[in-house]
């Protein structure tokens, strides 16, 4: 009887160990000093390779400092229903192979948003590819806790 219980416990232990291969890797990784991946490294302000992902709070602070242009990449209908004051409408569909006429300065600080963050990511990628150097994506207006205005 003791032999059967011992065998059953041993088999269960072996099965559990086989089902959790990530545990030893995680333990090993936590003992090594992690080297930051390129995505984790602080982005260079002049980097042309990627945009910066920021929070709505960080975007608001940059707006309050007065050195940023808010770019709304939603549709005209969405913009009319409610937008951030002083934002510029540049629908993501209008961003192509040439710089948008609404955004002539590639050195300007651009704060990009849409409704939920999907289109703003795509637009931010496109703007960086077009040569804009200071692109910040703060996601969607659904997460914007500050003032919005509507078109009359």
From TrEMBL:
| Chain spans, region Disordered | 27-49
Keyword Signal recorded = yes
Q: Where is the signal peptide?
A: 1-22
Tell me the Pfam families matching this sequence.
Rhodanese
Query: Which SUPFAM superfamilies does this chain map to?
Result: Rhodanese/Cell cycle control phosphatase
Keyword Signal recorded: yes
**What sequence ranges are listed for the domain Rhodanese?**
64-150
Q: Quote the Gene3D superfamilies the UniProt record gives.
A: Rhodanese-like domain
Enzyme Commission designation: 2.8.1.1
- Care to name a GO molecular-function term for this sequence? thiosulfate-cyanide sulfurtransferase activity
PROSITE patterns found in the cross-reference section: PROKAR_LIPOPROTEIN, RHODANESE_3
Q: Which InterPro entries match?
A: Rhodanese-like_dom, Rhodanese-like_dom_sf
* Source species, domain of life: Bacteria
Keywords attached to this Swiss-Prot or TrEMBL record, sorted alphabetically, are: Signal, Transferase
Bias-annotated ranges (Low complexity): 27-40
Please state what the protein is called. Thiosulfate sulfurtransferase PspE
Tell me the organism. Answer: Enterocloster bolteae
